[in-house]
Amino acid sequence: MSSKSPVVGIIMGSKSDWETMQHTADMLTELAIPFEAKALSAHRNPVQVHEFAATAKARGMQVIIAAAGMAAALPGVVAAVTPLPVLGVPIETRVMGGIDSLLSMAQMPGGIPVGTLAIGKAGAKNAALLAAAIIALKDNDVADRLDAFRAQQNATEAELPV
Ligand code: RP5
Predict the structure, then answer these.
(1) 142-147 long-range Cβ contacts below 8 angstroms, 24+ apart
(2) Could you report the per-residue pLDDT of 42-63, keeping only the tens digit for each?
(3) Is the shortest distance between the CB of 17 and ligand 1 below 6 Å?
(4) pTM of the model
(5) Is residue 90 within 6 Å of ligand 1 at its C-beta?
(6) Mutation test of ligand 1: which of 15, 43, 70 has the most ligand atoms closer than 8 Å to its C-beta?
(7) Phi and psi (nearest 5°) for 60?
(8) With bands split at pLDDT 50, 70 and 90, how would you rate the model's confidence at 116?
(9) CB 80: neighbour CB atoms within 10 A?
(10) More confident of the two residues 155 and 26
(11) Is the Cβ atom of 13 under 6 angstroms away from ligand 1?
């Protein structure tokens, strides 16, 4: 985590989600975007989740990335409280493979959006890249670093290890 003030808030429903969400943290770190990360459950820690979401904008956050598995209410609950864009990462689950998580956050009723990404590692990485693209609209340094990341990715994508 950077020592600068966080502009992205990562929240996840359980410490067990960190195995997936470390990929969000890694991508934000690579792009030098300061973030904070917390494990708080919409169901087990409702008071703390509300406090996190209600204070996020005033604390300098620009985007919230919320991850959860199973009956994944967390992104929607956070989105209901903050005006900031909320990106949802569905955690892969043992019983239903993460389809439960995906539908819980993708099927938000009209009026409170959650920008839902892919299940698991790809969604976690892309949540960071989408957060970067949002921040880059008003931050030229982040825009430059995101452009550089994409240029490097474009240059290396076709290489095979054989
Ligand atoms: C959700 O329940 C969490 O986001 C996690 O993905 C899932 C299981 O949580 P644990 O039982 O591992 O704490 O709230």
Answers:
(1) 142/31, 142/32, 142/33, 145/31, 145/32, 146/31
(2) 999 999 999 999 999 999 999 9
(3) yes
(4) 0.95
(5) no
(6) 70
(7) 100, 0
(8) very high
(9) 15
(10) 26
(11) yes
